[in-house]
Amino acid sequence: MEESKRKTGTEISDKEIVFSKSIKAGKRIYYLDVKKNRKDEMFLAITESKKVISGEGDDSQVSFEKHKIFLYKEDFEKFMTGLNQAISFINDNQSDLAKNEETSFTEPIHSSEEIKIDIDFE
Question: Hey, which bits of the chain come out as E strands?
Fold first, then answer.
């Protein structure tokens, strides 16, 4: 019984890829993979693969750094809202940032619950 639950060395993954899109961007490739888990629930796996060359000449070796993000359906809307805000900020302020690097444009992080503080200075 326990044997059926364990992964074997030859088993690649319990997640099935149902859609895949690759985006080539310079030394990086972004993979957008829609996968299904064992319960047939779909989620998005975003992978950044970056080509890294170490050494020089005949001694150089090529490898790939990979970073993954798993995005689940219940988080899509919040993720897209934040992503669109970040992209809009970059598009609107790119030239301003180059002119004034010391200025911080960090937006405060807000949770879904608003916190109100009433302070009375007398």
Answer: 16-25, 28-36, 42-54, 61-72
Report the number of distinct structural domains present in the chain.
1
The CATH number covering residue 50 comes to 3.10.450.700
d(CA 54, CA 59): 8
- How many residues are there in the chain? 122
Domain residues for 90?
12-99
User: pLDDT tens across 84-104, in order?
Assistant: 999 999 999 987 666 665 555
Summarised one tens digit per residue, pLDDT across range 19-64 is: 999 999 988 999 999 999 888 899 999 999 998 888 888 888 989 9
Whether residue 117 lies inside any domain: the answer is: no
Give buried/exposed letters for 56-90 (b at 16+ CB in 10 A, else e). Answer: eeeeeeeeeeeeeeeeeeeeeeeeeeeeeeeeeee
Whether residue 55 is contained in a domain is answered as: yes
